[in-house]
Specification:
The protein is mostly helical. Helix content is about 75%, strand content about 5%. The chain has helices spanning about 5-30, 40, 70-110, 115-120, 135-140, 145-175, 180-205, 210-230, 230-245, 250-260; strands at about 35-40, 50, 55-60, 60-65. The N and C termini lie close together (about 10 Å).
Length: about 260
């Protein structure tokens, strides 16, 4: 049966809000992800420097981009809950296309010839040392083709893994145990996302050792899973807010249809 116009309008508004939040966080994570920061320094503790395989040491060095990545996967779980596989697939494919589009625009921007005035007024840093702002601009934004390719593939694969694991768990639990399907799907999908981008960008297309990839990937995976678990109450809060917005009956109807794999109409 077709939805009434009022119901359809509410579903459309909800999907637009979730899609907008999802896409802006996914794009921001890619753009700011070039910087690696130290979680130990952030909290004022000494580096862990735990001996690791291949002569590497395990420390909590993380990409800045992963700070907001758990919010991407949480949004995926909410979309999954109310709009099903088709809703997440559309959003994941659109996200990958927009990330690729964003990198094309960024690449074009870095290729434009810099103004002499811009180079002159930014020619020295705060300590008076010569500073090449055009080189810095290009280095930060371009990141390297390997990272671009790796990030898009890891994003798309991670999203699709999250989608199918979420639905597998829901097929076993029904409407109950939202915390289990949210964290269970994140546990698997973020493992794929954390390691796949590093393998593609820095091992297969770069010059990192396999042990270096595993060390950094493990640190990022621990952070992502820990944050996803810590943000579980947020999922319940969003779920409750959506139920109030849609109405309990309409909300349960959408969840049932999403579970059955029916297209939203």
């Amino acid at each position: 049966m077709k939805n009434t116009p009022k119901k359809f309008d509410k579903e459309l508004v909800l999907y637009i809000i979730l899609a907008g939040f999802f896409l802006v966080n996914a794009m921001l994570a890619e753009v700011i992800g070039a910087k690696i920061f130290s979680l130990e320094k952030l909290f004022g503790i000494s580096p862990l420097n735990i001996p690791f395989i291949g002569g590497e040491v395990f420390t909590l060095n993380l990409s800045v981009g992963i700070l907001i990545w758990p919010f991407v996967f949480i949004t995926t779980d909410i979309v999954n809950e109310y709009f099903g596989k088709s809703g997440v697939r559309r959003l994941s494919i659109l996200g990958a296309i927009l990330i690729a589009y964003g990198f094309i625009i960024i690449f074009g921007g870095t290729e434009l010839p810099p103004s002499d005035y811009w180079l002159q007024v930014n020619g020295f840093d705060k300590s008076g040392q010569p500073f090449d702002i055009n080189y810095a601009y290009s280095t930060i934004f371009r990141q390297g083709m390997g990272i671009i390719v790796g990030s898009i593939i890891a994003f798309l694969v991670g999203q699709l893994v999250d989608l199918y694991v979420f639905h597998f768990i829901r097929s076993k639990t029904g409407h109950k145990k939202l915390w289990l399907r949210a964290n269970g799907s994140n546990l698997v999908s973020q493992f794929v996302d954390s390691f796949l981008i590093l393998l593609i960008a820095f091992y297969w297309l770069g010059n990192w050792s396999f042990s270096k990839v595993i060390a950094l990937g493990l640190a990022q995976y621990i952070y992502k899973v820990g944050m996803a678990a810590a943000l579980t109450p947020v999922i319940y809060w969003v779920h409750s807010a959506i139920d109030k917005y849609l109405g309990r009956e309409h909300s349960e109807e959408m969840i049932d249809k999403a579970e059955e794999g029916l297209e939203r109409t």
